Amino acid sequence: MLQIHTRSYSVSDIRRPICTSLGSNSPFCPPEAMNTVNCSLYGWNVTSSLDFSGVKLSVIEVSNKEVDIIHDDITGVERGPINIILSGQCCYEKVVLSATDENGFPARCVYVLSNEPMKDMQDFVTGQNTPSEGMVSMRIEQGMVSMRIAETFDLAVDFYIFE
């Protein structure tokens, strides 16, 4: 007796999106940048590669609207990789790059910009003499007060802390 078995196999070239950082994953922003007064003075940029195949990407986005994102047009593209360039200021601790294909499968790259937490600081100018005499500025951070004197002159300061 002869038996015949028939089988069908399907081969697919579908790769879900995979996000890879090209370059360093170390923090991009120095500790002195991680406060609300200085953060806009420091910048960062990173390049990522997004690989996928067989299913079109539906969206590429970042977690912060203030981050600049540059990438090729993904309309109709069914195969990667594509390079993505992100850049911004050091005004947040991390940024997440997300991509989703048309079937809803996500890919994410997380970039830690600093190991330091962002500090909320206020910068106040408290007094100013004539320009030739100098300027005093005061900074308040989490209940601590620091002063900076632009030029030398006599100064008397009283601090009162109320709780």
From N to C, what is the helix and strand string?
Answer: EEEEEEEEEE
Helix content: under 10%
Number of domains: 2
Helix-strand makeup class: mainly beta
Shape: elongated
What kind of sheet is the major sheet?
4 strands, antiparallel
Computed CA radius of gyration, to the nearest angstrom: 27 Å
Report on the structure:
The chain has 2 domains: 15-112, Immunoglobulin-like (Sandwich), CATH 2.60.40; 121-163, no CATH class. 0% of the residues lie in helices and 44% in strands. The protein is built from no helices and 10 strands. The protein has strands at 15-22, 43-53, 57-62, 68-71, 82-89, 94-101, 106-112, 122-128, 135-141, 144-149. The protein has a 4-stranded antiparallel beta sheet, with no helix packed on it. Strand 8 and strand 9 form a beta hairpin. The chain is elongated, with a radius of gyration of 27 Å. Residues 123-133 and 159-163 have low confidence and may be disordered.
